[in-house]
Design goal:
Layout (H helix, E strand, L loop, with lengths): L1 E5 L5 H10 L4 E5 L10 H6 L7 E3 L5 E3 L1 H11 L14 H23 L11 H26 L10 H15 L7 H11 L5 H19 L6
Parallel strand pairs: 1-2
Antiparallel strand pairs: 1-3, 3-4
Helix pairs in contact: 1-3, 1-6, 4-5, 4-6, 5-7, 6-7
The protein binds glutathione.
Length: 223
Amino acid sequence: MYILYGGPFTRALITEMVMAEGDIAHELRPVDILNNGHRTPEFLKINPAGWVPALITPEGDHLFETPAINLYLAERHELTHLAPAVGDPDRGMFLSGLFSLADELEPAMKRVFYAHRYVVRPEDTAAAKQLALDAALERLQVIEERLSKGGPYYLGERFSLIDLTLSYWTGSLASQGLLEPFPAIGACTALVRARRKLQVHFAQLDEMRVKYAGLLAQDQGVK
Ligand SMILES: N[C@@H](CCC(=O)N[C@@H](CS)C(=O)NCC(=O)O)C(=O)O
């Protein structure tokens, strides 16, 4: 049985969606990142980087880095509707798209959420957040152009882990009206959100976002 460390307010939800798509049995162990649950000695034994998600495989390996965990699960369980197999003509473009989200979009979004960590003076936090947001939107523009020429998904007619990951990250932007300049991304995420097995997770994501905005307003977010 897999053990997934994750829980509220975390991108572990993307891994839960992969598990749902593949009907993969697992135990979810919530980590309270608002109260530094990810920095306890116990959790650091699971993932020394101190981040969630982390996955313990049935063999006892400890895996981390969300896109790596997701790709591992998709490949191990032969979920070729999420990850084109080695030798599939779509494989190269799939890897390019997935790594681009991991290397470019996800770090920019992390800086948006944790802008206070990237400044020396607290009064620079809003500017750091805006710069991070600009970087994220610039990445989205590249994806928008690709989808508008040959969507609805990143791989054309073929849904994949890229669209699922993209839909997770764009959730908070959509709620602020920031996705309006990206209609093709909006259409792609609407298709992903309508997937039968994922609807419950996107409902959780929306709920989590509203709750987190409330906590931020009271200055109770992750430090
Ligand atoms: N590169 C890692 C980053 C993981 C990450 O930053 N997770 C967030 C939750 S979404 C976290 O643990 N935040 C707590 C912190 O940075 O202190 C991955 O993609 O898994």
